[in-house]
Amino acid sequence: MNRLEKSNFQPIVFILDLLKTIAIFIIATLLAFLLIKASFISDNIFGLYMLSVALVSILTQGYFWGILSSIAGVVSINYFFTYPYFAINFTMAGYPITFAILLLMSIISSAMTAKVKKEAQLSALREKRTDSINNMIKHLLSAQSIDEILNIGADHFYSANQSSVFLCLGDPIKPQKIIFRCKNERDEGIFTSMLERQIAHKAFNSNQAYGAATEEGQHNCLGTYFPIMGNQVTYGVIGILFPHSKWITTEMLTFISFMTSQLFLAIERQNILSESQEILLEKEKEKMRSNLLRAVSHDLRTPLTCILGASATLQDNKDLIYSENGDKLLNDIQSDAGWLIHMVENLLSVTRISDHTAKVKKQEELVEEVVAEAISRVYSRFPQAKIQVAVPEELLIVPMDATLIEQVLINLLENAIHHSGDTKPLLVSVSKDKKNAYFSVRDHGKGIPPEKLANIFDGKSTQEISDSSRGLGIGLTICKSIILAHDGEINAQNNSEGGSTFTFSLPLKGVNQHDQ
Questions:
Q1: Per-residue confidence (pLDDT) for residue 367, from 0 to 100
Q2: Which of 166, 216, 340, 363 could form a disulfide bond with 191, CB atoms 3.0-4.6 angstroms apart?
């Protein structure tokens, strides 16, 4: 007897079935005595014991108790209800044949009852399996990650087969991820044993089922292992630890293979989706690089030309230029050099968020301090600017890279100063809801042409923006990249009463993805 067959014997089930059989026959015997005493049954009480045999077959497991109760029924009739009473006597004329026929009828009745019960159980099991497959496919279609797919697969294998489950991504010897769904701690210990891992490793390498009750032999193991494979690719192994060897039927193995194929298709689909998303991300990065190059070529050429022209004029005509004109040229040089420094700062900001992970390292920052620092830097460049601030009275702390968010606020404020065409004060406001903090920069100028709103963050310079204005493109492109790297959003809109408002959001603590 092998290890799996030994595990089939369950003492508790055996004792319960024994008690059920004894109780049914005690009740049947007592009922027979009462019916005879009440003259309802005179000679033939075999039908009552036939009913008892059927009940035993229905309420117990297997054929054993039904056959045992058939024998016990014949003996009980002979002992209690056949002359001489309370004695076993099969020697009377005609009795051996009569009781042999009764015993055979009882055994056949028991076997047929047990068979009908088994067929009913198999029918219910097939229906349950069909529902399990449908539910599994439905949940796998809604999965958003490999981890979610693996957990859904483990849950459905566990519930559909009523057995402990071992799901491994990758080679079981050196797995990438392992998931257990076990009925008890003992089963998890079985799965983690070296023997079971080696059998699972064989299933992974050979692309065929290995283990208990498979064509490849039992290998003295308890589990049955199926590769998660298709299209000459193997993603992992699913292991099932059946409580009973009789459960491991050809139909069951076919059912599990079909479930495994659905799990493979879900993993394959998710991998294709992930690859597509990576391609789209690379395409978006390439688009951003192209826009930046276009914006840089536009925005750097003008100040460099102005610097060269002004410096050449001073050098060639320094004796002929009046002091006022000379000061103006020097101021132009200083202004254009400051703009170039600002452009370099923007480009350095881009290099911080243009790596392969597109993540930023966040720390909890006091919003009021970040806004104050950004406004201070704007005032150092534009002393004539007028800026109003509205922040919540409570302390608002948001996870962010403070330097990058300051750069966003500076870019938005400087764009408003350059392009609004109005001298009214700018308004910087901060608010929040349960998930996000919102930063807004509002001006009262001429607003943004409606046809430009959709592409304003794409870094495209327009002919309507003169060279002296330096362009909107690179600053807003950087703003968008920084906010997206923070898992936030940024948008622009025109105000009904005039001017425009740029708003960006940052996730509050606990709701962002890239906190480190």
A1: 93
A2: 166
3-class secondary-structure state, position 213: coil
The dihedral over CA atoms of 83, 89, 95, 101, expressed in degrees to the nearest 10, equals 110
How far from 149 is each of 62, 137, 145, 179, CA to CA, in Å?
38, 10, 6, 11
- One fold for 143-248 and 280-304+351-507: no
> What is the pTM (predicted TM-score) of this model?
0.49
* pLDDT tens column, 12-26: 878 888 888 888 888
Gap between the Cα atoms of 242 and 232, Å rounded = 28
Diameter of the chain by CA atoms?
Answer: 152
Token couple for 285: 């990065």
Q: Rounded to an integer, what distance in angstroms lies between the CA atom of residue 256 and that of residue 250?
A: 10
Q: What tokens were used for 116?
A: 């009908």
User: pLDDT at residue 511 above 50?
Assistant: no
Centre a 10 Å sphere on the Cβ of residue 487 and count the other Cβ atoms it contains.
19
State the Cα angle at 65 between 55 and 27, rounded to 5°: 45
Domain ranges of the chain: 3-123, 143-248, 280-304+351-507
Q: Taking the domain 143-248, which CATH number applies? A: 3.30.450.40
Choose among 128, 151, 127: nearest CA to 140. 151
Taking CB atoms within 8 Å and a gap of at least 24, the contacts of 225-233 are: 225/166, 225/199, 225/200, 226/256, 226/257, 226/260, 227/203, 227/260, 228/260, 228/263, 228/264, 228/267, 229/264, 230/261, 230/264, 230/265, 230/268, 231/268, 233/268
Helical spans, DSSP H, in 354-460: 367-381, 402-419, 450-453
Domain 280-304+351-507 in CATH 3.30.499.10? The answer is: no
The pLDDT, as a whole number, for residue 294 is 65
Reported confidence tier of residue 375, pLDDT bands at 50, 70, 90: very high
Say which residue the tokens 């996870």 belong to. 399
Q: Which residue has the higher pLDDT, 69 or 137?
A: 137
Residue 296's contacts (CB-CB under 8 Å, 6 or more residues apart) are 343, 347, 474
Asked whether the predicted pLDDT for residue 453 surpasses 50, the reply is yes
Backbone φ and ψ for 296, nearest 5 degrees, come out as: -65, -45
Q: How confident is the model at residue 509 (pLDDT cuts 50, 70, 90)?
A: confident
The DSSP bridge partners found for residue 491 are: 503
**Which helix (DSSP H) or strand (DSSP E) does residue 290 occupy?**
helix 250-317
pLDDT single digits (tens) 338-365: 767 766 766 666 665 655 444 577 889 9
Question: Alpha carbon of 448 to those of 296, 406, 464, 501: distances in Å?
Answer: 22, 23, 12, 10
| Confidence category of residue 462, pLDDT binned at 50, 70, 90 | very low
pLDDT in tens, 463-476: 443 343 444 446 78
